[in-house]
Structure formats: structure tokens, C-alpha cells
Amino acid sequence: MSTTVKKTVPFKLNGKEVTAPEGMVIIEAAKQHGVEITNLCYNRNLKPFAACRTCMVEVHVDGKKELVYSCTHPVAEGMEVTTNTQETDRYNKACLEMLLVEHPLDCPICDKSGVCPLQDNTEMLSLKDGRFEINRRNEPSIKSNPIIEFYLNRCIMCGLCVRACDETQGVQALDFHKRGMKVGIGTANGEPLDCEFCGQCITVCPTGALMDMTSSARGLAALFTSTDTTCNYCSWGCSLRLESKKGEVLRIEAHMEADVGINQSNLCAKGRFGHGIIHNDQRIQTPLMNQGGKFKEISWHEALEIIAERARSTVNRSGPETVAALGGEKITNEEAYLFQKLFRGVLGSNQVTNLAHLRAPYLNRFLLDCFDNGIRSKPITELEEADVVLAFNSDLPSEYPVGGNSVRKSAIFCGADVIIANPRQVVFHNESPVDIRLQYRLGSDAWVAGRLSRILIDNALIDTAKVKAAVGNYDALVESLSPYTAEETRKHTGLDDETLTRAATRFARNADRFILVGNDILDSGQGEATLDALLNLAILAHTGGEGSVSIYPPREHCNSQGVNDMGMTPDHLPGYLSPEDPAALSHLAQTWGADSLSFDQAPLARDLFENCATGKIKFLYIAGEDPAQSFYKGDLVKDALTTVPFLVVQDTFMTETAQMADIVLPTATFAEKDGSYTNMSRHVQRVAAATLPQGTSKPDFDIFLDLSAALGQAFDYSSATEVQQEIERAAAIYKGMFPGSRSLQWAPEKSGERPGFRTGKASAPAAAKDGYPFRLISNNHMFHIGTYSQYAPALVEIGPECVAEIHPEDAAALGIGEGDRIVVSSEASQVEVPARLSTVSAKGTVHIPKNWPAVPVNRLRNGEEGPVSVRVTRAG
Amino acid sequence: METDNAPAVAEEAPEKEIDLTPVREILDNLPGPERRYLIPTLQKIQNVYRYLPDPALKLVISKLGISRAQIYGVISFYPQLLIEEPGKYIFKLCYGTACFVKGAKIIADKIYDSYHIRAGETDKDKIFTLQTASCLGNCGAAPMAIVGDDTHGTIDPEKTLELLSSYRDRKDEPEEVEEAAQE
To answer: Which of A172, A179, A876 shows the shortest C-beta gap to B67?
Structure first.
């Protein structure tokens, strides 16, 4: 909730005394009291518009009668609202009648049939036959882009798509064109749609004028089987509705109901159009065994026997610490739990980890630090009622597109301040009255955050006495902030202090603040320092300011949070208990029905790949992860995977990592399994199967059960629910978290017990290397995440090619034109890509998305922690 | 790099290079970069170029912070605003009620027969652009048309063709027409 408290006003609705928040429009207030008013153009996420004129109601204020449109007229104290009077029905009906003069009644082949507001309203107003002669439009369907079809004959000019594109998405790719009888929605001059392809326009379209071309199905949407589940791409964790027919998932839609999921009916391109990974011929069909570089198909039984035998013999011969597991950040909580249980409980090895933890073990520590300081962070659903949003090194439209939707909504309806701190001049159109951009020099993240904290203290924007009393090491913080003067900050970040002060002042006011931290900070070389600095900033506002602070650790994939929660790290048991804590171990042993558990072994998984490469780890089991492509130490991973004596990889597609395995197991996609994902704000959300696993593939869940049986200690679960019950016992933080259809945010029982700032020494950002004057920025493309999305044909169609972005002035100096092929080389490697010139990239930087296997950007980094120094030259 | 690109560049070359200095001046003299100044800005630009060249629109888009779809939404709303270079003469034929009943439609058809242009179109010699207007405020002289600054009242189909011919054959401003007329 925003800190602005709205008054509740009493009014009368159809004779009944009811209340609603002041300023709420009648249609919404009525809906909350169970009264549906006809309408075609109202959407609670958008500003009132009044295009369709079918929502008229009668109101009496001070005895005076008025006929008003309920989608624009707010409720007021003492107002008497009457819906569906004879008079309003007559007006509403007439408008609908006129729409039906033009609207084709091709319902049997319409995508919206059965879920069509036009049909519903016609029914609600009992409109049987119109008085007017039918006069249909007959314009051809427009298919000038690969994803969204415009069939404007069905358009009723409600403007929902135009408004969603503008207000929700901030893209403004659509508008009304021409006027009068010829009016139509469309792109500039009929040019092909060139946008973020979020598909929000399809969701809001009430009539099927805009259609999803990635779906082969047409007609009677109401007859599809709907499965409510959670998206498997980024960590925002949107609720999805998979629509299937005859066992085939045909398309993905958003929930339209309020309060379902954290995304409030918004989706992005990946979530909506990325379903091509489900029914896909490129999927691994059967278990495979590597015989001298060639893969031979084997049976499940054979494969599991080989793995079990090898695991057992390795443990016997070399000790349990030589078998290790790498859990993908896309497996479900239940799968991650079973995976670590298989290793800890059955094989006796604590060597389990995941890529994010390998890269940045401080992420989990940061999360726990927040709790220690009493910062529990609000559910991310409340982002749309935020007062201040600080997007820190996160390109929202690419990283958290749906998060961007919530921020825009908070800007419109709550007047939220938007502060964007990023080394790129990222595009984020919004209607915030205060939109502050801090475009700082690449690699100086920690300085920006540190300076903001210091301004808070120096300018007494917060109650420092309160902070000093509450947090023991306040003086140490003040001391550690001494280098962050305006002058030094300007030197390192390139930011002037006036803008920073403005940002700090807005941040410090009485507000509900949300800090969204991007995964890019991990590449800054100052990831840990930056998170600590942001934590300090959050503690200052939390303790010394009014309102609230919410901050979440950066998480990349759909279950990056959950795999850590489930103890898929060598440093934590499920629920962040320590594997060195005897009480925690005995609790876990008790839950598992084991006599005792102890892991008195070297922490080999902390440097998993190094230990594979040196031969210390002899058996590596990777579930749903492709480190060869995604890990930042490319060469090391290759070395590790070729050296490790036995490698099992289970995945849906034949990734570069899978190519190197001894045994490959085919797994099911998210649409074929049950379980849960935990998003970046710790919402535990349901994953539900919409179809049966393709071919002989199996959910990771089933594979782990089968493997436990092959190892002679069969896990006795018949469903994901039973595993969830065990997780609730093993990890206290997950008690009561497992969702039905609504998601819950886990939080520890106690927090704020050990407040303390994290202080460290300020370090200046590293300078570029000699001979390599440019710095590389590499992150997820708007239409892709990891390399997984490359298997979704629709996403490849809209994001076909990896393009490097450089500043036009740099390009001019190098003689590079738009579209020219360039070679970007670092000390370690080089890639060749076409160039795009844009001022979004700062001078001296080059931005290349990391999602194309053919452009191995992580090889350029090859283990380097900070911004990679590169050279840019024209190819050829 | 292959040299295949060369002919493509050559083909684009005949596109007239547009001097955008006046657009920059117009934009610099705006009271502020706000959307409410869009329509006057477009009118001023059109007064310079007689239409709205795409490179000029791109400058307006970046200055006023609106999208391409939105600017075209405004332009397509007003028939007065043109995105293609019109013919030398804009023939505004009144389609108001009085002119319409007195045969404006017949005149439009006659023009189409001779010049193959409908409302909003330009003939192939780039001499005439036909526009229809809802009412030009001279109903007493219906049907009527305006060409440039000249008003022509009580016209009929035959007179209209004569009128058009007289403009076509005019030599007062040869520099612009010359090229086109020779084709």
C-alpha cells in the first residue's frame, strides 16, 4: 500500500449502503460489491477513457439525478448509484447495437469466442435483435509482423490496446489513425509492428481484433482446457494460463482476474510467446549414452543403473565428497529438494550447488542480512502502489518487463518517483512526475549507492539519532562513508551531486520504497560491495525514515530463489540452516528418518569447476543447467566437464553441456510437471502440468525418485504434494507456504534480531586495460533469457540475431555504420556481430546480449570479475 | 566486404536530400518540449516543405518525446497534414452540403477521368493534388474550389477541366515544375 491513505466514503449502490475508497470510479466500486456494470473499454490497470459508452448508470447527488458513465465518475459521499435502470439500459443498449452494425459475427472462428466481453455485454443487456441494417467492414487481415495479427473488422475502437501499449508498456507502438468512419488502430503509416512484443494488446482486446499468431488454434477459446501455472523464464514469476486442446498446449494467456498472481494480467514476450519449447522436435527424445563421442540411445532402466552404479562405486572408492551436483535454476523447489536429498541423504555428499551461488555466494548472505536488519520486504504485488522505485542497474523492459508494468502503474496511479540508476541510458517510458536518471560510469555501482547513503546522513534526510540508537555499528558506517564525497563520487561515477541529492531526497521522504537490483551488478566487479551499499541505504531508510523499504536480491531464472531456499548450495541446508550446525543436521536427519547426518568434508562444491578440473571431483550430476554456455568462466567449465571422470546431464534440449556428458537424460518442460517455483520476492507459486511429458522424457522429479530406487534407498513419495509436506517440516521458512492458486511470500519467523551495517573499504572502479579501450556490458536480451529461449521459434522470430550496440560517436570514430559487422575482442576471445548505433549505450561501452550460442559472449569474459575490457574493430 | 551494396545506395540517391535547418529552428523556438505544441509545429514544418518529410518527423519525435505511431495518429487525423510531397497545386474541392448537392461529386469524377486522382492523391506529373473539404465557407458560389490562394466559384465539370489546364500550362514558377513536366 502506498503511504498515502485514502479516505473511505459511504454511498448507496442499488439501495444498499456500501463503502469504497474515495476517488474510485463507480464501475470498480460496484464490482467490489458484486455488481457488474456493462462495459467494453474499462480496465482497472488503465486510466479511465470512456470510449464505448455502454456503462451508464444513474446517480443521485443531493436529490439531483444525473446519468453518468461509471468508468470515469468517481464515487462520492452520500451518492446514490442505481444500475440497470430502464433509461440507462436503453442508452447502453443503443451503443452496443451500433457496434454490432459493424462487428462481424464470425464467432465460431474467433479467438475470443466464449471469453468475449462483447458477447457478455450483449447477453447482459438482453440485446436480441438490432434495429439497424448490418454494414460490415471488409478489410484484409494484417500480418506484417511475425506474432500479432490485426483483424480490424472486429475492432470496436475501445482503445484498450492503444492505452495498454502506452500506459502499461510505455511503448506507444499503436494509436488511432484517421477519423470518422475510417478510424482504425494501428502502427505509424501502416508500418510493420516494431515493439516489445509483450502482447498486452492481445490480452486486453475484447473482441479478437488482435490475435496471437504463435497459436495454431482459432475459435471457441472457452473450450480450451486452462491450466494455471507459473512462467519458467525470468525470476519475476508471472502467473500464466496455459491453454490446451487435445493434450497440446496451444497458447499462453494472462489471468484477467484481479489479485491473481503477481503480474496482474501483464505478461512479456517471453512468457506469452515462448511456449514453443514445449512441443518441440529438437527436444532430447530418449536417454543417451556417450560412446566415444557418439550418443547411443539406451533405456531408462539401463541409464539409471549405470548412474547408480557409478555413483555408488565413486563414493566407495574416493569418498562421498567426490560426487557433486549442480542444480539448474529452472528446476522446481520439490526437484531441488529431492536433488540435494539424493546427494546429502543417500550419497552422503554435501557437494551440491547452483550457478548463481557459484558466481555470487554473497546473494544468499545479502538476503539473510536483510532479515537480520528487519527488512522483510513487501510482496512484489505492492510495487504497483509504490511511492519510490529505485531500479538499480536493471534494464527493466529487458530484465523484469512485468516489473516495469507495475512501476508504470504506480507512477500513474500513485505518482511514484522513478529513479533509474544504470550505466546505460536505458529506455523506460513512464508517466512519473519525478523521473530521475543516474547514468553512472560502468563499474562504479558501489560508489553511487554509497554516496546516496552519505547524502541521507549528511543532509539529515533521515533521523540519524534513531539509526544510531538502533544499529550498533552506525559510527563504523559513517566512518566507512567518509571517502564518498561529492567530488570523489563525481570523479568515479561521472554524476553531479545535485542529481544524486535530488534522488536521495526523494528516496528519503515518507514513502513505500522498492529497490529493484539488476543481475548486472554481478558483472560490475563490485557485486558484493554494491549489495552491501544498497543494504546500508535500505537500513538507513528503514530505521531512520518513515514508510517502508523493500529490497530483493537479484535473481535471474524462474527458480533461482527457490533452489537456494531448498539448500542447493554447500553452505546451506534447506531453509538456510547451516550444514555445520549440529542441531540443524539432527533436525534434517530426523525429518529424513536417518540416524544422523554429518558432512565433515572439504567444501569442494564452492569451487566446483576448479575441483572438477583438478580431478578432486569424480562424479558430476547436472540437472537442467548449461554452464558451458552460461557460466562466466567458459574455458574453466570446458576443462572441468572434459576432465571429470563421469558426467550426467539431464535437460530438455541437447545443450553444449549435454554434448559433453557420459549419460544424458531427457527431462520434461515446465508445462509437463507439477511443483512450485519461488520468485525473486520469495513468492512460492504453483507449477502445474498442462500436458503429458513428450516422448519418453520425464520430469526431473520422477528421475530423482527412480534414481533413489536404483541406489537402493527409494524415496517414498507419490506426488509433489508429499514432498512439499516434507519441505515444510525440513525448512521452517516454507511452513504453510505451498500454494493453492494464490501465492504466498515466505519470510522468516523472526527478523531484525541482529541489525548491522556492512561496511567495507571503498574501491575505485578498475580502469580499462591497455589496448582494450572499450568495456563490455552483456546481459539478457529483451526476448531471450539464458540460451533456453532460443528453442522457442516465436522468440527467435522476433529476436533473431545477436546485435552489438555502440554509441554513434564511437562508431563514427571507428568508421562503423549501422548494421556493419564488427569484431569485439578481449584478451581471452573474440566474437563477430553486426552493430547497432544507439545513444542508449554510453560512450566507451559496447553492449552484447548473451543469449546466442553462436556468439559466446561469456568467453570474452572468461573468468574476469569486473567489466571486461574489449577492443572493437570493423570486420573484414 | 562485398560491393553488392553499391547499386542499392545508388538507387536511393534520387531521394532529395532535405535541409533540416528550418526544422531545427522551429523546434528550438518552441516554448517547451511538450506534446501540446505538436500541431503548430507540424503546421510550421509543412509551411516550409509543403509536406512533412520523414527526417523532419524524426526530429519532432525525439524533441517532443512522442512515438512514431502517435505522431502519425495526429497526422492521419488531419487531411491538411501531408506525409508525401503534394503536386504543385493543391486543388481543394468543396464537399460541403451545398457544393455536394450542386455536383461536387460529379466534378471529382470528371477530374478522376482526366487525371486519375481521387481525394488525397497526386497526379503522376506531380502538378495537382486533389483534396476535398467539408465546407470552404462560400456556399453562395457552390460548387466551388480553391487552388492556392485563388477561389473559383460556380464551377462545373467542364469548367473545372479548363481551370486545371490553365494551371497546368502556367509558366510563372517554372523551376519546380520543369523536371516533372518533361517526363
So the answer is: A172
